[in-house]
Every structure is written in C-alpha cells, then in structure tokens.
Amino acid sequence: MPNFDGGHYFLTVLAPVRTDVLVADDGQTCSPVSALHRALYVLPTALQSPATTKIGINSPFSRNTRTHFARFAILTDVVFNGRTERNALEVALRGPNPAVAEPVDKLPCPYLVFVADFDARSGDESELRAYLDELWRTMGKELKSIFSACYGFEGIDDSRGFQDYVLRCQIETTMPFNDYWVGAPQVPSLRQNWLIGPAAVSAVVFLGALVLAILHVGGLPWLAIATIGFVALVASLFVAYLTVMRNGAVPFPTAPHSDLPSVLKALYLQQAFTRFALANQGVDAATLHAAFGRFIDEHRPDDPSGPTQAAGVVTTLGPTPVAPYNTQTAAPPAGALRSGRS
C-alpha cells in the first residue's frame, strides 16, 4: 500500500476551495482563496531558523509526537506544458493544423494541498482516523480556520466530521519518501527457481511438442501436448507476475528507532554529545570516564521520553561550550599542529 511504508503513513489531501463570496461578521466580503491565503500566512512555522526562533511561536503540528513532516499549499491551477510533440513532416502532410489551439487542462477551482508524514502501525483507516483525531484535539482551531474555505466543510466542528472530510478528499500517495533505513531492510526474497521453474518446464514441453508435431513424429498427440504446454506457460507466467506484484506491495518493515520520539532523542543526544566531546578535550582517562558516567546519568540515552529535543525546533540546548585546552593535565592529541620550527 503506497500510503503506508516503513512504519509511516504518507497522507495526501486535495480539498477543493470554494469560489463563492465569504461574508465576515463585520460585513466585509472576500474570496475564499484570499481567506485561505490569510489563514496559512498567519499559521506559525516550526522554530527552525533564527528569525522563527526569535518569534518564539512554534508550529501547531509540534503539539503531537507523531508528525514528522507536514505542509499546506494552494494549487490554483495546473501548469501548461506546451503543445503535444509531433513530427513536423507528418503535421505538414496529414495535420492537424498547428494554428489551431489544442485543449488545455484547467482546474475547476483552486485546491488546498495537505500532506503529512506521521508514525503509524499500519495503513488501516483506523490509524489514519486516530492521527486525524489527535490533530483535531491539538490544533482544531487552526484546522477549522484553514479548511473552512473548502467545499463541503460547512458545518464541520468536531473530530469525526474532520476525519470524514479528509478521507473524502484523500488521494493515494504513489511514491512515498522514507529515509530512515540506514542499511538494507531485512525482507524475504523470492526464490527464483520457484518463479522461473514452472515457466521453463512449460516452455520446454510446448516447444518440444510443437516441433515433434511439425515433424509428424507419431506415437503421441503432440499438438494437444503443445497446447497444454502453452496454456501451462501462460498460467505459470501469470502466477509469477501476481506473486512478484503481491510481494512488491508489502510495505517495508519499520526501521529501528524511526518513530518521532526516537528521532527527537537522537537529535538531542547528537547535540549533547558534541558539547560533551568539546568540553572534555585533553582530560585524563579517569576524568573522562567519570564525566561520561555523569553524561549517561543526565541524558539517559535509552529513554526517548526525556530529556529530549522538543518537536519543531532546531536545538533544545544552549550555545556550544568549548573548553580551553588544558596543558597541565594532558598531552597534545596525536597529529596536533605545533607552532615553531622542528
């Protein structure tokens, strides 16, 4: 199932935007797409740059611990890729007239695009509904201000209605992107002899019986045997095709530590250990051993619940401390640069 792969659900939603006129409580009017632009403009983004960090208002998607990536966009129309390519000589001889415009695809209305990649145990509808319910409980106000500009969302003000609406507007994600596997996942491979063997035997029977029938070799009904071999060949190839396609549709297994809490913990430890390494340059073995023990006790690497990095931020820790090199307690590291002439 393309929507689900490697322990993640890849949601793609196309919601049609209304084309009538919206009237606000104060009597002002605007188009739904303008209201949608405004709602998305004021939606906070994640704190992943100096400018957004200075603002200090995190994305509402950071209120849950399942969303890896999420994005809203407005699709106003499809791109015109130009006329259909044709052979110039053929067009000159047979047409069509190049001066006559070809049909151009146009969307009947703008569309709101909503995509999200979140942790899931399966691709079942229940998993999607559970995630959408969590979204509604943690950011229902923002979702309502955005989707209220879409067709069919009128009167929806609860989680179940939001779930039903998203499922109606969902389209299949045909090429999900999952980058958490470091090595090759352990998946069962198909045995080639079981796939090719029946087809090979059937082909030999078909061709051999057909040759003997053409040569009029008596003794057996070779033409009937050739027909049976041909039917068996087609059937074995069809079964092999179904087997390959069925196995190819099986989702990849979940990569180790690829859920959002584990990823956030890994980012936190990456920063914490970098600061630890910089702060303990040049210390003796006993001091380093004791410091590393304190590091383990403080940061608890095996506990993804905390301490950890918050969702939607670049860093949870402060500036990187750099300890001065201690010439009294340690020798220079191997390969260190030395000033002066040798």
UniProtKB/TrEMBL annotation:
Superkingdom per UniProt: Bacteria
Record's protein name: Uncharacterized protein
Region ranges (Disordered): 299-342
Alphabetic keyword roster: Membrane, Transmembrane, Transmembrane helix
Residue stretches spanning the membrane: 194-216, 222-244
Organism name: Methylobacterium haplocladii
